[in-house]
Amino acid sequence: MTASISTIVEAMERIAPPHLALPDDNVGLQAPGPVSVEKVLLSLDVDVRVVNEAKRRRANLIIAHHPVIYRPLSAIRSTDFSGRVILSAIRNDIGIYIAHTNLDCAQGGVNDALADRLELKNVRAVKVTHSEKKYKLVTFVPETHVDKVRSTMCEAGGGAIGEYSYCTFQTPGTGTFLPSANATPFLGSMGKINKEAELRLEILIPGASLSAVVHALKEAHPYEEVAYDVYELAEAGRRLGLGRIGELPEAVNFKDYVDLVKRRLGIKQARITGRDRAKIKNVAVCGGSGGDLLAGVLAEGAHAYITGEMRYHQLLNADASGLCVVEAGHGATERVVLPVLAKKLQRKIPGVEYILSRVRTDPSDWM
């Protein structure tokens, strides 16, 4: 089976909404690709080796984390890195889609995947960049179709409260309507006021998912004219942003936690700062380069900070502040999102195959 590239882009924009990207970050489609997609290759980076891998493994769309084009190009030339990659993709009719800092900030994105991999609970953003609006949608559905409508709206992004999904509330009632001569009612009779048993169905929706949930409602609802109300709530929705801080189930020795980090990230070595702290419980994480979040990490009261890399003076500051740091590598701290992303896409568009790149694009290594 196949899916249109626009369908996959729409799914990615629900997973990692583009408005979450930091200013001047270049996200979205960077090489057009084919109209229909059979197989998607997920990778941290895209270079010519990854494009060749996609061709060899018959994937005609690459979804990657790091942009190929960071700054506007005046021309596409084979003499520079970005130009070679884009030309190779175009020649082979392979699309390239980028989800960068929007995937870092998104719920379930890079930093949430890293926090989950490292066994953190009660997780929240270190630096909040977006506070989403929250809405309640109320609709009225015949009992025969309420499960279908509920499921469709929840799959489109509604009905999540904390660690719970498919959260709705329903109450019975009676709907009335008088069809016009041009109507084709699902229930009732023409020419008279009809009274039909219906269920009032209520669901919470994050702002980024509102349009998708309303569209899903209209597609699943059996009525010709769907009655629904949308209320903006005074309470703010999800607070999204960079980095995550959470708690371990119990305090552990820093050395033991370093061993867990290496094991869970599949690395043999890591650079550490702050060997003297006996126990840690509050842990912050940031995939990739996390030095710029140091002030926020310290303000949140973290005992340890797991990131890809930090600059020397930032490590001096961390050490002087009593913070333990694990530099686990840029790629190792971000790659954890790829299998998570594949599962999310598989649920949303099951007719397409999703595979992970086998090319090691991280240019640095420990010896």
Automatic annotation (TrEMBL):
InterPro entries: DUF34/NIF3, DUF34/NIF3_bac, DUF34/NIF3_sf, N-reg_PII/ATP_PRibTrfase_C. The keyword Metal-binding applies. The keyword Metal-binding applies. Keywords: Metal-binding. One of its GO terms (cellular component) is cytoplasm. GO terms for molecular function: metal ion binding. Pfam families: DUF34_NIF3 (PF01784). A divalent metal cation binds at residues 65-66, 104, 330, 334. Homohexamer. Belongs to the GTP cyclohydrolase I type 2/NIF3 family. This is GTP cyclohydrolase 1 type 2 homolog. It comes from Abyssobacteria bacterium (strain SURF_5).
